[in-house]
Amino acid sequence: MTSRSLGEPSRSPFALPRGARGRMAGLFMLWANRQEEVLDLLDVPAGAEVLEVGYGPGGLIRLLTRTRARRICGVDPSAEMRDLASRPHSDEIDAGRIDLRLGAAADTGFPDAVFDRVVSVNNVAIWPDLDAGVAELHRVTRPGGRLLIACHGGTKPSLLTRSNALSEDKIDRIERALRGVFSDVSRRDLTSLTAFTAVR
Question: Which PANTHER family does the annotation name (predicted)?
Fold first, then answer.
C-alpha cells in the first residue's frame, strides 16, 4: 500500500503492524517516540474530547490520560496496536473515558463535530488519501477545535528521524491540504517533529 498523495511506501511493520513482528514494531515505537512536545502543543483544555488518529502502541494516549480531557478516543487500522494501546487502560475503557477503535484517518466512524482536539503523529505519510483524511478530520472537529498533524523532522532529529523525514515538497502538500479546509494553519518545528496546527 502506498499513499496516493505523498508516494510514501508503507510495507514496513510500522505501517500496519501485524503479528509478532508488528507487536515488536509497536514496542519499538513506544520506546523511540517521545511525544511530550506534542502534548504541550495540543494544549488540551479541561473537559475536552480528544481523538488520536493512528495511536499505535498508545504512547500519546498514556500522556493524554494525565490531562483533564473528559474523553480520549482513537482510531488505528491495526488490531495488534489496539490491544497493546488498551492494556494499561482497562479501567478507563470500562468507565468510558477511553475509546480505542479500529479505523483510519479517512474513516474514523465518529459523528460530526465531536472533538475539541484531533491529533496524528508520524502516520500522515502513509494515509492512502491525504485529502480524504484531512476532510474527515475536519468533519469530526468541533468549530473552534484544533487539529495537529506531526511528522518526522524537527530542529534536532535523530538519525532515525532524519531517515524518515518528508521532503519539503511533501510537507508543502500537507500544508496545502490543510489550508483547503481549515483556518489558521501554522507550521512549527519541534525537536524531532515537524508539526502543523489548524483551527476549524
Answer: METHYLTRANSFERASE, N6-ADENOSINE-METHYLTRANSFERASE TMT1A
